[in-house]
Amino acid sequence: MFFHEHQEHPTRAELAFSFARADSLARNLPISNVSVVIYSMPGVTAPPRLPASEIPELTSDIETNTPHLHCVTREESPFIYALIQEHIGIWNQLITHPFPRQLADGSASLDQFRYYMIQDILYLQGSVRDKMMTAVQADFSMLEAVAQKLPSSIKYCHDVKDICIYDLGVPEEVIDCTEESGIVKESRNFHFSVARNDDWFALHIAMLPCILGYYEIIASIISNPKSAKNTPYYSSWVARNADVSYSKAYIKFANDNLGRFQTPKAIVRWRELFEEACKLEIKFFNVGRELPSPYAIVPSGIYQIINFWNGYALESTTTNNPAQESDKQQNLSGTAAAHRFVYTAPVKGKDSQKWILEPTYNGYTVKNMVTEEYAAVAASSMGQFAVASSKDKAYWWINTVNTKFECLPVKYQFFVASSVQRTLAVSEDSACIGVFDNTQFDSQKHSRPCCDESHGHVPDVDS
């Protein structure tokens, strides 16, 4: 498998480390940075190292039940390996959490993912504030070091925010008005309380689920051939977190500094911190469930849906012979489709080309004005997917096409809510289900003119 090398921007874990380091320096705590350089400070001595015979070993009698670990092996770090195995129950709850699994297979709620990403921004912004508050209490050399690090930290906050705005379609004003979740506050307060009340090595234990846990999840997704790589989730989350360098640096730090901090009392504390940190990371994955309301990427209303490539409007037409269609396509109720969806020349005011879009927690419903039936996904007799009418509600996610560097009208894609690697598309003159390709929008394709906007804000469907 392949992973990105160390990125220039910091991760959430690195931000927490750098901010806590500033706090530790200000409070004259013994520290060592992530690159495993031990800092000597006047008047500060390391805890005495116990004889090996007096140091209790971290062992586990259930390691045979441990799944293969991507993040660490026994040979790389017996200490970390044993610590994970002692808490294999809570560790497995973290690395097998439903949310990243749904991101991997494309079935996650796009709105919950948007909220999760926004909460990550708020975590980062809060950490930057904590860092600045800590720096003002330190001497000038520490203040200068923090000031040098600050631009990259702020840039990373902006980078994640840009993803939410341009890749996920959330307006900046909506992001800025979002309140920090109680889960995020609890996580941030936990990490900084460890930095203030414990020691630098204990903070690494507290961050272990964030660093190695995320790497374990990402490595599992990348190595799984069934993972859906053509989704907004893969490019926005999986690829950006596939950085092996932090895990390697963490393992090296633990191996090089364990003896300096290890005492019987410390081991008991590390176990407590590890378990609590796993619980907080699990909670962080649950934050999307706190979504207060659906993101109305397109406000509820009546629209024409204009195909971006051919300029035709989506229309519902009556099937001439429903019996003949029964072998080809069924709607979600299991009955023969009475209507089919085609793309025809847009006609201003034509009711069969009018669609009622309504955002819900499950996605958008797309209902035709004339037939009062919903656009849904159906399976054909050949095992392929098609678009069909349904009397029952069916759901789609609507997302913007990234047009950060353009002045053209905003374009949209309609994703099948249960599988976002599938999109509403066109085949000849008929609506169909296409496969999402997040690399297909180059500048030349973007430069094509948009079509009739007689109904105001017109979503253009990618094909």
Written description of the protein model:
- The protein is elongated and about 75 Å long.
- The N terminus and C terminus are likely disordered.
- The strands form five sheets. Strands 9-10-11-12 form a four-stranded antiparallel beta sheet, with no helix packed on it. Strands 1-5-6 form a three-stranded antiparallel beta sheet, with no helix packed on it. The chain has a two-stranded parallel sheet with strand order 2-13.
- It is built from 14 helices and 13 strands.
- With 463 residues, it is of the alpha+beta class.
Report the helical percentage: 40-55%
Give the biggest beta sheet.
4 strands, antiparallel
Order of strands in the sheet with the most strands? 9-10-11-12
Element string (H = helix, E = strand): HHHHHHHHHHHHEEEHEEEEEEEEEHE
Give start-end ranges of low-pLDDT stretches.
1-10, 22-66, 322-336, 439-463
Span of the ends, CA to CA: 31 Å
Secondary structure: number of strands: 13
Structural class estimated from helices and strands: alpha+beta
Cα shape = elongated
